[in-house]
Amino acid sequence: REAATLTKALQKRVVDGGLEARKDDASIVTVGDFAVQALILQKLAQHFPDDGFLAEETSDMLRKEAHLAREVLELVSSASGGAFLDEEALFGAIDLASKPSSNGFRWVLDPIDGTR
Questions:
Q1: Within 10 A of 33 (CB to CB), how many other CB atoms are there?
Q2: Which of 4, 19, 23, 78 is most buried, by CB atoms within 10 Å?
Q3: Which of 53, 42, 32, 33 is nearest to 82 (CA)?
């Protein structure tokens, strides 16, 4: 629910521009991509700690682009009621994207977000 609320709020802002960047492969990534992935993976890991995850984004770009990291942190902190206290918590949630499974179950995440 938090991720859906966040993406709905982001739609107009993304369309207006300024909340996206280009990855090394020239594909577009938005703050919504990072924020939604962080929210969903954090919740899944909390409720299914032995499950594995596969998702598209990593924290690499956010670690290099401080302004994007701040924007994403603000979004997820607001949407989650403060569950993300700092950038390292945000990066950790995003980087659950390649967490292996210890029980044979793996979630594959491709959220619908703000990408045009």
A1: 27
A2: 19
A3: 42
Rounded-to-integer distance, Cα 103 and Cα 15, Å: 40
72 close to 31: Cβ distance less than 8 angstroms: yes
Amino acid type, 59: S
Asked about 33 being catalytic, the answer comes back as yes
The closest alpha carbon to 24, from 71, 60, 74, 70, belongs to 60
* Active-site residue identified among 7, 33, 95, 113: 33
User: What is the model's pTM?
Assistant: 0.80
Read off the pLDDT band of 31 (50, 70, 90).
Answer: confident
**Which stretch of 14-28, 35-49, 90-104 has the lowest confidence by average pLDDT?**
14-28
Residue 58 falls in the annotated catalytic set: no
- pLDDT at residue number 11: 62
